[in-house]
Amino acid sequence: MENKNDDKLDELQQALDDNEYDIENYDRLIQYMQVYEEDEPWKWQTIDAIYEQKAQYFTLKLHELTSWILVKQKVDEGELLLFYGDAALNYYNIDMFKSYLNLLLENAMGETDHDFYLSEISEFMKIAVYDFENSNILWNLLIDHIKQHDSDNIAKLKGIYIKRLTYPHKELDESFNEYSSFISAHDPSNYEIELQNANKIYQSTKKLQPHYEKYESQIKENNQPHVWINYMSSVFKYSKTKNINEILPIFERAIANDETWTEEWETVWISIIYIIFSQDEIDTTNLQRILSKYLRTFPNSPCAYAENIRNSNLKQYKKICNRIDKIKFKDSVDYQKWKLVVLAMIQFENINKTEETIDKLITNLKAHANYALENNDLMHSVEKLIISLFTELGFQELAIELLKKMFDKFKEQVDVWLFGINYYKNDSDVNEIRELFNRALSNASMLDKPDKLTEEYLLFEQLNGDINSYRKATVKCNEAMIKAIKSKNENVIVEEVIKPKPQKKRKHEEEITRSREDYTIEVKNLPNTINEIEVKTFLEDCGTINNVSLIEKKDCKKAIIEFSNQQSVFAALIKNHKKIQGNEIEVTKLQENILFINNYPNDFNEDDLKSEFSKFGPIIDIRFPRQRQQQNKKRFCYLQFEFSNDAQKAILEYNGKEYIDKQSNRKYKWDVKISRPKERREREPPKEKDSKPKPHVKLTSMVPNNIKRRKQLNI
Predict the structure, then answer these.
(1) Is 88 in the same domain as 165?
(2) What is the Cα Rg of the chain in Å?
(3) Is residue 644 part of a domain?
(4) What's the structural domain count of the chain?
(5) C or N terminus of the chain, fewer CB within 10 Å?
(6) Phi/psi at 64 (nearest 5 deg)?
């Protein structure tokens, strides 16, 4: 072996020693060692040690476990027994556990090993008994083992058969028939009594079967995160014991494949974590196990770091912070993701502060605030939390200093001004608050929500001022709105005169990239009294809402909500089974309920299309996207049904259906399919000529109605 190979090995090992949180350091070293020329024991011992270290910080994929097993065989086959046992429990892998049991049998020496075999099955079955799909595999292993080693113990076998009947599982009918045969063969004199008792248990469990079969069927048809989430939520909701073990097999099956290690599937992890949080007595053992595995599986997820931080002790927190620093996580993600981690860090450090750590906490808060100011988070969650903490800790001067920085840096953001004004209301007199409103209005030409600021100012004067101060405020608000409107109009003119084409192109692209199909959820069982604003308020922490449609039902309402991104959808799905005004809601992701209707008859308008398709079911919306060219317009639209089944019915009847166009007397075919955003650019709908002139765009006044009315009344 040449010296350069030794140098390379030293270089790779040093890289791993320097940063154990970089997964590539492990992979490069393992790859190098596997092609190493020498086939000496130290080589495989080294690879074994690398895998063992990697497993402390990262969840190994199934193919890596297989490779590690091969390495273990070369190092010490005696270790395989322990390895299989640990891996089966950590990964909840039935096949791996069966291999572990087979190894136990191969190494069995006597009665002690028989007892150990039973104890290992019993330990694994604490979770496995709740596995509707696979539990019977282990029941059969247990029964077969007892029949082989303790066949005369009829009472013990009876107990196991009966216990199996108490758990819903796929082969429940077969289990009952098997018990019937067993009693017939071994206790025929008591057959009738035994079967009567067993039948009561069987019938009780049988009632629960459809509840599981419903989701098992959905999983086979559509293996998506929301199905697993609903499965877990439903089982836990109707559980009498609220035992997390009842849903652990569902969770472990959901995440079993490497393909689920994506951002979309993170919602399954977050869902089970929140289910644990809902327990009266939180199962901290399972919580810590899941959180640790969550971070090892998603080492670049802000949610994984945030949840681990919130539920860690001081020692664990230091390790997490060390990991964050070593991988330079703050620099590798955008601020919106980093914000989740920062908020968790601030919460942890504040809860665990002592007199000795207060100075460090203040230093960290200042650093977090400065970084937040640099990144202009529109919600300003970090700055607002830090201002509250500064005040609570008795450092009000630091709170005011940060607030002033926000006023200077974000002077165009009305929400920042209103937050500051509300803060000052606690310790300032009316004139100081009035001065802040006037200072904010002085930026009228750049304010993002001038109407909101003026309404708050006038409301403030109504509550705290007199008729004279109210009149003065009305004048100032009116002047500010005029400046704001003038500024908006000037910006519109600049856009139209200087850059007309890019402006139109951008609007068209926004229409294309906006993905209602992927970012829409359905919320059922809303109170009849709820309105759109209350729905938005309930979901505002999930993300930006593009649209809300409320639908009246017999004794409740439901809402169709369109978000702006996938992350918001994930956050909203977590609210499943939450309560609004006493109603427990059901939140699901809407899928395949929007049709792309292309090549419809030339003389059809919106009412014609609604009339044509409403026979299949309720229609939520129909959209005719903006087209850049009024000449040669394309005939297509997007029609949204309330139910996906209705959309499928429409496709079956209309897609490919022929008709004669009345204007051209030519034969055409309807093109009706599920709308899929990624395919939109490939579509070429037929064009039609349109000689109608472009409509004249009229700018509407931005002056709020209350100000207009006051002007009319000369207030």
Answers:
(1) yes
(2) 33
(3) no
(4) 5
(5) N
(6) -70, -40
What tokens does 160 get?
Answer: 């196991």
Contacts of 192-198 with CB under 8 Å at 24 or more apart are: 194/158, 197/162, 198/161, 198/162, 198/165
Q: Are residues 94 and 157 in the same domain?
A: yes
In a domain, 687, yes or no: no
Q: Is residue 701 part of a domain?
A: no
Residues 488 and 415 in one domain: yes
pLDDT in tens, 414-465: 999 999 999 999 888 999 999 999 999 999 999 999 989 999 999 999 999 9
Q: Are residues 134 and 149 in the same domain?
A: yes
Is 473 within 8 Å of 703 (Cβ atoms)? no
Same domain, 119 and 183: yes
Q: What average pLDDT score do residues 115-140 get?
A: 91
Handedness of CA 130, 132, 138, 143 (dihedral sign): positive
pTM, full prediction: 0.68
By the 8 A CB rule, do 198 and 158 touch?
Answer: no
Q: Which domain does 234 fall in, by range?
A: 217-295
Q: Are 154 and 186 in contact (CB under 8 A)?
A: yes
- The Cα–Cα gap between 275 and 397 comes to 41
Q: Hey, what are 73's tokens?
A: 């065989």
Of 160-164, 399-403, 471-475, 512-516, where does mean pLDDT reach its minimum? 512-516
- What are the phi and psi torsion angles at 126 (to 5°)? -60, -30
Per the rule left: phi > 0, alpha: psi between -120 and 50, beta: everything else, 466 is: beta
**Residue 56 identity:** Q
Looking at residue 218, its amino acid is: Q
Residue 159 has pLDDT above 80, yes or no: yes
| Judgement on whether residues 324 and 389 belong to the same structural domain of the protein | yes
More confident: 121 or 712: 121
- Measuring CA to CA, which residue among 473, 470, 454 is closest to residue 462? 470
| pLDDT, tens digit, 9 for 90 and up, residues 465-500 | 999 999 999 999 989 888 888 887 766 544 444 444
Domain-located, residue 664 = no
Q: 92 and 24, same structural domain?
A: yes
**Residue 99 above 60 pLDDT?**
yes
CATH number for the domain spanning 75: value is: 1.25.40.10
pLDDT value, residue 5:
53
Q: Phi and psi for 636 in degrees, rounded to 5? A: -155, 160
